[in-house]
Amino acid sequence: MKTEKLPHIVIVGAGFGGLETAQRLAHAPVQITLIDRHNYHLFQPLLYQIAIAGLVPSQIAYPLRTIFRRQKNLTFQMGEVTSIDFNARYVRTNGSVIAYDYLVLAVGGQTNFFGLNTVEENGFQLKSIESATSTRNHLLRMFERASREVDPEQRKALLTFVVVGGGPTGVETAGALAELITHVMTKDYPEMDLRESRVLLLEATGNVMAAYPDELRKSTMDLLQSKNVQILLNTRLTDYNGQRITLADGRHIDSYTLIWTAGVRAAEITDRLGVQQATAGRVRVDPTLQLPQHPEVFVIGDAAYFENGEGQPLPMLATVAQQQAKSAARNIRKILRGENPEPFQYKDPGLLATIGRNAAVARIWGLSFSGFIAWLIWVVLHIYRLIGFRNRLVVLINWAWDYFFYDNQVRLITRE
Ligand SMILES: Cc1cc2nc3c(=O)[nH]c(=O)nc-3n(C[C@H](O)[C@H](O)[C@H](O)COP(=O)(O)OP(=O)(O)OC[C@H]3O[C@@H](n4cnc5c(N)ncnc54)[C@H](O)[C@@H]3O)c2cc1C
Q1: Catalytic residue chosen out of the listed positions 172, 215, 339, 342
Q2: Mutation to probe ligand 1, out of 12, 16, 347 (largest number of atoms < 8 A from CB)
Q3: Given 136, 358, 360, 398, which is the most exposed site by the fewest CB atoms within 10 A?
Q4: Which of 46, 130, 150, 93 is nearest to 392 (CA)?
Q5: What is the enclosing helix (H) or strand (E) of 254?
């Protein structure tokens, strides 16, 4: 009996976009190869919880082979894609060459330091399990060092924690860090007066949460200040040597900790593809998310540059990546049936960011919420969106414990 060869779909990247595309094609008459440099899917929105010792990595990352155990038309390959030949239609990884009929590029983004090399070298970032864990180790080490430091100036620098970037990640990190100090570290270090410690949030523009409506920006500022976060607006950083931050106006801040959350750009591989790139290195795509001149290639998520109706690029958000994944999968099915692909349309589900215990801001169904209600929505949504029942349960228990006992449980300094 002659078996018909199924079209081969290669998906690069198993983040929010790649995962959703693969799942949406589960019952399509195709053979899928999913490639990622990691063997797990990472829930990046909770990376800051690793950094502030609230969760362990296995609670926000899930093995890909387990996720796809039952999906018969999919093979997973762990590997780093190093180049793509769009004419010959194959991708090259560090170990293999894989031909495709259709390619979905969902390679995501990476931290953008905007050429500030000293910040990249000496600062911390939240983009991977490794970077979040090393941030946690460093933060905890600062308290240990401060506890035996006799020089008050040195101690002040050790206990000054600077978060750069007033977007949701910076706000969430600053709020959670301030609470870690107030509720947990004060108990662990009774010998220190932790009123000496400071959490500073630096923002280059005149606003935090630029994408949020005015009333929620104001609520964010109020909530952060109530948690003792000092917000420095219109403050641009120019240099950081690991101990001292230099600001554009010549002022200095002495600090051993700088967490950079001020920029994201498309993943590095996009620079090597010879395709047209827009702001932040994102790849320009057609309204159907296809690559111009290569309709068999779809680019989605953080890596794709796609403008909304007002000519603004869609933000780098998981919700955008997931909606684009659905659209790409639907369009691949359509093309396979001989139909025309449809343009992508983003449906904005709203905005949501937490600022610590009992505090969040949300914009949903055109309504603004802040405080406890927004925080409850945040908790429910984030637990619901985690992959795996065990992860949901363990994270829920962890958070409940922290909530009732004011105790971040993962205060371990591990070797890197
Ligand atoms: C700290 C933080 C907090 C965030 N908070 C929120 C939030 O609250 N809400 C929200 O909506 N969004 C949030 N985001 C953004 C959200 O995580 C991204 O928009 C989303 O992950 C984009 O999905 P993606 O599929 O495009 O890329 P990703 O999810 O980043 O996945 C890309 C995948 O591609 C793989 N990859 C990259 N290059 C290669 C290569 N060359 N070879 C092989 N594999 C490769 C990577 O390993 C990764 O698994 C946050 C991001 C961060 C970093």
Answers
A1: 172
A2: 16
A3: 358
A4: 46
A5: strand 252-254
pLDDT in tens, 331-382: 999 999 999 999 999 999 999 999 988 999 999 988 999 999 999 999 999 9
Which amino acid does the sequence have at 235? Answer: T
**Joined tokens for residue 341:** 């692909």
Q: Which two tokens stand for residue 224?
A: 């952060």
Tokens of 18: 């790649």
More confident residue, 105 or 366: 105
Is the C-beta atom of 80 inside 6 A of ligand 1? yes
251 CA distance to ligand 1 centroid (A)?
34
> What 3-state DSSP class applies to 50?
helix
User: Within 10 Å of residue 39's Cβ, how many Cβ atoms?
Assistant: 14
Crossing angle of the two packed helices 16-24 and 318-336, in degrees rounded to 10? 30
DSSP string, 91-107: EEESS-EEE-SEEEE--
Nearest-CA neighbor of 94 among 107, 106, 83?
83
Beta carbons of 267 and 109 less than 8 angstroms apart: yes
Structure tokens at 275: 């395709």
Going by C-alpha positions, the residue among 227, 185, 194 that lies closest to residue 375 is: 227
- Closest of 36, 32, 31, 39 to residue 14, by C-alpha: 36
